[in-house]
Amino acid sequence: MIVSIASGKGGTGKTSVAVNLAVSIDNVQLVDCDVEEPNAHLLLHPKISHDEPVYTLIPNLNEELCDHCGKCANFCQYNAIFASSEKVLIFPELCHSCGGCILICPKKAITEGKHRIGTLKRGYAGNLELVYGELEVGEPMAVPLIREIKKRIDKSRNVILDSPPGTSCPVIETVKESDFCILVTEPTPFGLHDLKITVQVLEEMAIPLGIVVNRAGIGDKKVYEYCKAKNIPILLEIPYQRRIAELYSEGVPFSLEMPEWKEKFRTLFAEVRRRVGK
Amino acid sequence: MRQITVLSGKGGTGKTTITASFAVLTKKAVVADCDVDAPDLHMLLHPEIIETQEFKGSKLAVIDEARCIKCGLCREKCNFNAVTENFTIDSFSCEGCGVCTIVCPTNAITLTERVSGHAYISKTKYGFMAHAMLSPSEANSGKLVTLVRQNAKILAERENCNFIIIDGPPGIGCPVIASVTGVDAGLVVTEPTMSGIHDLKRALQLLEHFNVQPFVCVNTYDINRDNAEKIESFCKENGIDVIGKIPFNPIVTEAMVNGKTIIEYSPRSAVAKEIEGIWEKLSALVSEKSFT
Fold first, then answer.
1. What is the pTM of this model?
2. Which residue among A129, A163, B16, B247 is buried most deeply as judged by most CB within 10 Å?
3. Å from A18 to nearest chain B CA?
4. pLDDT in tens, A59-81
5. Which of residues 153-192 of B touch A (CB under 8 A)?
6. Confidence check on the interface: ipTM exceeds 0.85, yes or no
7. Which residues does B162 contact at the CB level (< 8 Å), separation at least 6?
């Protein structure tokens, strides 16, 4: 079963929920898909056994064959190629690796080159396997790296995907093909606003979902009213407690220090399993 | 005119709370909400929309069923697995590259423009605001950010404003890059957590990469004073100004629930005073600095 953890708004507690869930159940593979700012490893302290560069395909131009016809630049939807009558310039960080320029070049002057966008890391914290990616600073596109780390998903395990914030392409790439999505929100106007957008995205993608309310007790009751009206299940509430915030700040999953929470996360997971029917 | 981007790396550290407060404190600024896929600034500043623009950021392949001979070439050549078993396009996967249109032997596929969001020019109690809303699940947020920034610039020039204050998205990817390129300063809002520190460092690297002058402020610093000190000494070692430390106070959430900035809701609170101090320092430093 693949369960993704998303939120819309940043800083609502996605990583905290993902990590605490991961340490509370067995046979887990946690895949941190927030490649821009991966944080799960800061709470799990895994022993990294595997570290590999990740590349995307980019055009590699053979200047001798190129006659500057400009068809490649004209075709490219991402402005990754600029062609003048004297020169062709390639901007690797804008390239989406579609391969169109290679197909369209009448002189066969373009071949596949590669461009490093980040690093894939794998390791273990006890029996828990962690896979995550680190986007190179200055690289704009997270999606190809997310796609690459998701190839390491081991379906024989309980797979937990920690999503980046937002509602655009990196989130879609993460939650795609999940059996269930847990949305972590906080009961504030910002939390609710971004939650609504995310629910809309997941409904369009036909992914079943449930809510974890983090920092329960702050803010107002509108998240609860919304969930009730939309018939969205609230799977767990985590109260705002200074102790929980402090443990997070120190890089400690709070359910390790407050073991009563392990049982709550196990119940949460059992409920997700029941809803998925697996 | 100076442009300042408020960013954080990690989400939820208080970017929007701080940006909105700046907007109230400086009456001569245009604010731009560049978190286009989860914009929240409007909930504090209550803009009145003056103009709406359609944003056509990406394209989508469409297969004409009548012409399609189901040869499978498009599916074979698509690098995004966007052509389904039934020869339809999965709009969540299609990146609008157009490869399918050139490999199709019967010209059954065309690229169509899709409206992937809207940009707005608005007025608030405190001045003009440029913002946007990316349609849920759309791509190309970077391009929409660029449009918001263009709008902000036009407004600032027209209104003769001294500052553009940009509320950035979390992360360090394309919309963040689009929010920081060419600005005069970046204020990184961090929190004293292991994640906050880790993400701060990457956000600072990003600013360095794009040659933007960095400033740091630590929000809810008293949640973990040791970590707050670590942030300060790290910044000191790297010659970066920590221009403020904001204490934790539930009143910030209370202000948000009431749809107000902390400056309006509780002007005498320690949080409001600290943000005022940050704005004074930041605006003075950014104005004085001679930029090459």
1. 0.94
2. A163
3. 14
4. 999 999 999 999 999 999 999 99
5. 169-178, 191-192
6. yes
7. B1, B2, B26, B28, B29, B287
